[in-house]
Amino acid sequence: RNIDGDVTYTVRAQKGETQIFNGSKTKTYGYNGTFLGPMLQFTKGETIKIRTINELDQETTFHWHGLEVAADADGGPHDALQPGEERVIEFKVTQEAATLWFHPHPHGNTADQVYNGLAGLIFIEDENSKHLNVPDDYGKNDFPLIIQDKLFDENHQLNYREARNEDGTIGDTLLINGTVNPKLTVEKEKVRLRIVNGSNARNYTLKLNSGDSFVQIGTDGGFLNEPVTVQEVTLTPSERAEIVIDFQAIDATSDLALVNEDGSVLLPFDISHSNGVASELSTQLNDFTLTAEEKNLPVNKTVELFGMMDHVTINGKKFDPDRIDFTQEQGVTEVWEIYNKPDIMGGMIHPFHIHGAQFKIISRDGAAPPENEQGWKDSIAVHPDETVKIAIQFKNKGLYMFHCHILEHEDNGMMGQVLVE
Ligand code: C2O
Ligand code: CU
Ligand code: CU
What we know:
Layout: E1 9-18, E2 26-31, E3 39-43, E4 47-54, E5 63-65, E6 86-92, E7 98-103, H1 110-115, E8 120-125, H2 127-131, E9 142-150, H3 160-163, E10 173-176, E11 179-180, E12 184-188, E13 190-197, E14 204-208, E15 214-219, E16 222-230, E17 232-235, E18 240-246, E19 257-259, E20 265-275, H4 292-295, E21 299-306, E22 313-314, E23 326-328, E24 334-341, E25 350-354, E26 359-364, E27 379-382, E28 387-392, E29 398-404, H5 407-411, E30 415-420
Parallel strand pairs: 1-4, 3-8, 9-13, 12-20, 21-24, 23-30
Antiparallel strand pairs: 1-2, 4-6, 5-7, 7-8, 9-10, 10-11, 13-18, 14-17, 14-19, 15-16, 15-18, 19-20, 21-22, 24-28, 25-27, 25-29, 26-28, 29-30
The structure holds CU-O-CU linkage (C2O) and copper (II) ion (CU) (2 copies).
């Protein structure tokens, strides 16, 4: 937090070189540094002023993913900053404690810029989160994990143009917080991991290689009502999950790791011999509710996701910055029904994201969502032939994007606009 006059934060999009591999330098982008970005800390109720500066040699935007702000502060594709340009945005934090993130959103060029390293974190705190019994000692028992996969060429360069895949660039190297082969040293205590899928396209199903369960305490936009015991969590691009692993309860000898579905190791844990704090988790974390009224609202908007490669569309159309696809009234809850229409190849999961609001999942194919999705969401995985109903309300006015968060699909036009009036 660099207080500069009444500016709370200064965020610069920069390019540079990063030592990701020993002995070599990779050309990367970053915020306030050469790779990834800082963690911005907001408290509900405060007014935040951010000075954003584009120090790249191409246009970019500063988008606060999951933040409920007026559209003119949202940093969508209409808010491009040219090289050398800067802009101060100001907003009041009106939403509850959550782990959000920020990334660029320039028209047609989002995937490239995120892939090269532009991504940062936002932690929101509120009165509830301050009083909860959840691990919150940052860097000791509370860690963010930005998971990304990248493809490096023989010179350890990212080379997006060559790596690019129209269905979403997938890499063979996994990085957490920009580090290859990461290892996390923890004490024997409960440890909170705020996991962000910051990949362009890859989905992760994370579990412990020991088979031990853990608890999920948060979704994209806040705490779940209660800790939910799970064996694994699946995150599609841009989704977040906060989990707590109890390293005292796990009888781990060695080799304990967070692994992906296929068994590949994402993060080995090094458990030190010392005992950390032995505290119980709060059993009541939040008071999120999907009301009977919300459940029974008629469907106001239907969204059909379709296609693969560069043939992706929403309701049969590609993004047009001059077309408004939907309008919605500020402060009014509406139901959006999102359908993923399969193609002859079967189709693929599209992670659907809406700007400027957190929403509630009403149903997946008519059934209540699983317990660990009964919380605020801003992105959801929609499977082929699946219909998801959500209840959404915008607190602010303006023009907001909704799109597939496979970044190459977004750049290929799988995006629309809702005008909130
Ligand atoms: Cu993560 Cu349109 O954004
Ligand atoms: Cu967003
Ligand atoms: Cu998609």
